[in-house]
Amino acid sequence: MTVRPLIGITSYLDEAAWSVWRQRAAVLPQTYLDAVSRAGGTPVLLPPQGGGVERLIGALDGLLLAGGSDVDPARYGAEPHPRTGPPHRARDEWELELLSAALERDLPVLGICRGLQLLNVALGGDLVQHLPDETHQRLPAEFVRQGVLVRPESRLGEILGPTAQVNCYHHQAVGRLGTGLRATAWSADESVEALELPDRAFAVAVQWHPETDPDDPRLFDAFTAASCKEAAR
Fold this sequence. Notes:
The chain is an alpha/beta fold and about 230 residues long. Helix content is about 25%, strand content about 25%. The strands form 3 sheets. It has a 9-stranded mixed beta sheet, sandwiched between helices. Strands 2-3 form a two-stranded antiparallel ribbon. Strands 7-10 form a two-stranded antiparallel ribbon. A hairpin with a 2-residue loop joins β2 (about 10-20) and β3 (about 20-25).
């Protein structure tokens, strides 16, 4: 029987509305769950909470850091830009603990948008808090389709080849690279669009949103395949 790896996906903890209710809830776009399921994984939501990180990471076969709100600039020693969103400190703290435990265990990690930025900050890097030309985020809730150049001699290059068309929605970008990280993709304006930790089995993060593009499952397939190896150990 084929092993379906357990993939933990970080999520929002925010006010939401359904039926007659409006209250705090753990929420995540269905596109993340669908992308993991299509690739052969079993998605498990990981909303911000107190404790249990080591046990969770020990039970998972892969960690997906999902998109979301801006990382608190205090995490990289900066004052907030006027366009930086309000901090969600509980989520930052929770995801940084999950990421640290996952990297220590060499659990497969995939970061998406905020997830890429969190990985960079976790390893001592910083962020450009607002991109003035708005080429990566033009209208609310509308992805920008654009091309990226991929470093051929990288894990991402093995998966996608030298170029890819991707869906972007971000107003921040990587500034100073964190320790050990390698930039592996760039947009036309030279913004970093992907990072990797070369000394890990699978630690890849992209600034775009591959979960919104079911016609190109290659990144999720590769992440799930790495997680299958973890599940089989």
